[in-house]
Amino acid sequence: MATHLNWLRTCKLKQLEALARATGINTSGTKPTLISHLQDGLSQSQSQPHNPLPNPSSKTPQQKDQQPRKDDYNIISIDMGIRNLAYCQLVLPPSWLHPSKTTTPIPKPITPTLNHWSRIDVSSPTDPITANKSLKESFTPSIYAPHAHTFLTTHILPHNPTHILIERQRFRSMGGSAVQEWTLRVNMFEAMLYAVLQTWSAEGKWEGEVVPVLPSKVVKYWVDGAEDVGVVEDDEVDTEDEKKKKKKGKRALLGTEKSKVRKMGIVRDMVQSGSGVALEGQAKEMGDLVMGKAEGKKKRADKGKGLGKFDDLADCLLQGLAWVKWEENKRLVWERGMDALDILTENGKGKKNGG
Asked: Quick one: which of 131, 154, 165, 289 has the fewest CB in 10 Å?
């Protein structure tokens, strides 16, 4: 596989960084390190099976309620949280990563369909009898294990997903030395989601792919100049120099606020223009709330229909769309070689053309 990518050695460092950013591959390191990242990431994407078919022997309790998947790609993108967990469903046809090989021009990107777009409070009791506001909220594993199972069973499995993208959590925030209690809680819940999905997969109850996604890579893809607004990848933090850590932490805090505003603006522009993603069904209703077009206007709509924290909704959608573009760009780089660099540069890392 690596022989197929020998042309990467002729690229300059900036070109390698551009390729890595456009394909969701780690952008940090020296030129040899970047070449190694790209070779591994691109080769792995070609060897991994995409669009796994449903297992006919699957006998989950939710089987009757699942949407018929046919051969579509049903992608669930989850922005992790407990009181503010957001997720969306993106659907793409079977031809998404398998265009006709008889066509010599670059295949036109397929616009994903956004069918579902929600934000929920995982810690909120579903049983009205036990929903006692006076009781102190508990975050013990024995409480959150059922939460994880209920969330996946009730909200995710009925969409019959082929891919589940889960926002990767970090133990430290902004490069700081302290580990926040809330961070540990979300990390615990994240691990439980993986455990439930792995159990279902091993028992043949669900066939699909779970994909961890680093938020820093999503921001770097969508927000131009993200490196200048404090997006720091895990392996870029200097653990030996506390002063550098604090400086990066302050810069990251400022950058996080800036990038949050810019990401919400990107999503609003998408919803308003109808470009990059097609909203249908429940997602269309949520899109109307985003644009303030729903009856009752923003305050009443937010309160009654759960728009809530829009930044979480924006994050889950941009995460899903970024992954879709990364997979398309990986295919493009694999098939077109050095020519892909010019194509991606011209299209703005692949975002303008259908993303």
From this structure: 131
- Please say whether the beta carbons of 283 and 76 come within 8 A: no
Distance spanning both ends of the chain, measured CA to CA = 28
Q: What angle do CA 27, 226, 279 make, to 5 degrees?
A: 100
Q: What is the mean pLDDT of residues 220-242?
A: 51
- Which candidate, 89, 36, 79, 44, places its Cα nearest to that of 324? 89
Answer whether 323's CB lies under 8 Å from 162's CB.
no
- Across the beta sheet with 209-213, the strand order is 209-213, 163-167, 73-79, 85-92, 113-120, 278-279
* pTM of this structure: 0.79
Q: How far apart are CA 136 and CA 141, in angstroms?
A: 15
Cβ(75)–Cβ(163) below 8 Å: yes
Bridge partners for 163 per DSSP: 75, 209
Alpha-carbon distance of 324 to 354, in angstroms, equals: 11
| Distance, CA of 166 to CA of 16 (rounded, Å) | 26
Pairing of strands 73-79, 113-120: unpaired
Instruction: Tell me the torsion sign for CA atoms 294, 298, 301, 306.
Output: positive
Tell me, what's the pLDDT at 8?
Answer: 92
Annotate 233-252 with b (16+ C-beta within 10 A) or e (fewer): beeebeeeeeeebeebbebb
Q: pLDDT tens digits for 37-90?
A: 999 999 887 766 555 544 444 444 444 444 545 678 999 999 999 889 999 999
